[in-house]
Amino acid sequence: MTLRLPELNPPVRLLMGPGPSNADPRILRAMSTPVIGHLDPAFLAIMDETMSWLREVYQTKNHHTVPMSATGSAGIESMMVNLLEPGDDVIVGIIGYFGQRIAEVASRTGANVRIIEAPFGEVIPPERFEEELRRKPAKLIALVHAETSTGAQQPVAEVAEIAHRYGALIALDCVTSLGGLPVKIDEWDIDAAASCSQKCLGAPPGLSPVTYGPRAIEAVRKRSHKVQSWYLDLNLLFAYWGDGKANNRVFHHTGPISMIYAMREALRIVLEEGLENRFERHAKASRAFDAGLEAMGLSLFTQGPRLPMLKVVNIPDGINDAALRQRLLEMNIEISGGFGPLAGKTWRVGVMGVNASMHPVVTLLGAMEQALAEQGYRCDRGAAVASASAVYKI
Ligand SMILES: Cc1ncc(COP(=O)(O)O)c(C=O)c1O
Quick count: other Cβ atoms within 10 Å of Cβ 382? Predict the structure, then answer.
């Protein structure tokens, strides 16, 4: 008898949490094109094209710009393990959970981790980095550009200027910002940055676009210890992706072909739309969501400069967090709960990638209003959708 097992049949959800966002159908189509060998000349040409498009999205000329074969966390880890050696000093800016995570990753390299913190929901004034560097030099400043746990947007250009004035490098987590907010690597003079595939770039999770500038590459070359991680060692990784000089490619790991197709298509979509248009689309969806939220009588948690693509919403008194999110899931809509100290107090809503547009925003607002009303929350019914859609009226 032939064994028959159930077909894969996941629900179709509107993904309005902090990521993944819904993948663009063009990207899913690209992923289903034929797999070829990872050293096939045709694939090497696709890698080169993907690198060059990624440079445009990161607004950089850095040769060392690739989608690493792993999720955003590995891109962040690659920055720490390549740029830090045991005994080095690193200053980590913490404005939420993902900054704490950078500090944890950095501490595992044997570096001396010095922390500068701001209360959750706020950002760190750049002068605080200067005070810390004046007190004691450091090799690296690492910080999160778009803090997904609090919805705050950390100013980074000023921090980069300070870092370089004191001879330090700067590494950035742009997991949530890339593709939805300007990330100007060259103009801001950022030495290293890492992002992900599954948020504003609109591809499935699985790759971490990273970029390394000349100072960072020099620091890696001058290391006195081997990079502790074989997989994340930039020297080995760029022997496969190409170091920009010799054109021979050396086997490092088997490139995740279909995911690189996905990234290539995601970047093609971003560049065809145009970076400025894409940022404006995210900003408009953000304004629409905020208008709807306010009309419902809800408020945002974030005190500091806010992100357009990630909203941290205060849960009103008397509303059961888990029950509300479960109700939304029954309507095939996903949002997320708060992180750490914000768990049970906030929701995290993503307005990212293909979902940064009118239909997903008004769909979510209408569903939230219904789910809140079922728990006895009182508001002006219909006002949220009316206010959000008004933002899109010409
Ligand atoms: C700011 C930030 N950094 C790092 C990560 C980790 O990325 P990944 O889940 O792709 O490993 C996330 C994931 O949500 C994030 O929001």
Answer: 11
pTM of the model: 0.97
Element (H, E) at 388: helix 383-392
Which residue among 102, 196, 198 has the greatest number of ligand 1 atoms within 8 angstroms of its CB, and so is best to mutate?
Answer: 196
238 contacts: CB under 8 Å, gap ≥ 6: 64, 66
Q: What angle do CA 182, 281, 60 make, to 5 degrees?
A: 25
pLDDT in tens, 21-67: 999 999 999 999 999 999 999 999 999 999 999 999 999 999 999 99
User: What does the pLDDT look like over 191-239, one tens digit per residue?
Assistant: 999 999 999 999 999 999 999 999 999 999 999 999 999 999 999 999 8
Helix, strand, or coil (residue 337): strand
- The token pair at 328 is 């939304």
Q: Token digits for 349?
A: 């809503």
Mutate to test the pocket of ligand 1, among 15, 21, 68, 73 (most ligand atoms within 8 A of CB): 73
Structural domains in the chain, CATH included, are 25-272 (3.40.640.10), 276-392 (3.90.1150.10)
Kindly report whether the peptide bond that precedes residue 341 is cis, defined as omega within 30 degrees of 0: no
The per-residue pLDDT for 312 is 98
Contacts of 209 (CB under 8 A, 6+ apart): 54, 57, 58, 65, 66, 67, 68, 75, 178, 194, 195, 196, 197, 201, 263
| pLDDT tens digits, one per residue of 338-377 | 988 999 999 999 999 999 999 999 999 999 999 999 999 9
Say how many CA atoms lie within 13 Å of 238 toward its Cβ.
Answer: 21
pLDDT at site 212: 98
Residue with tokens 């499935």: 204
Pocket of ligand 1 (CB under 6 A): 18-19, 71-73, 76, 98, 144, 148, 173, 175-176, 196, 205
Separation in Å, CA 16 to CA 8, 202, 288, 289, 367:
23, 12, 14, 11, 12
Beta-bridge partners for 172: 143, 193
The conformation of residue 205, written as its DSSP 8-state character, comes to S
**Gap between the Cα atoms of 293 and 303, Å rounded:** 16
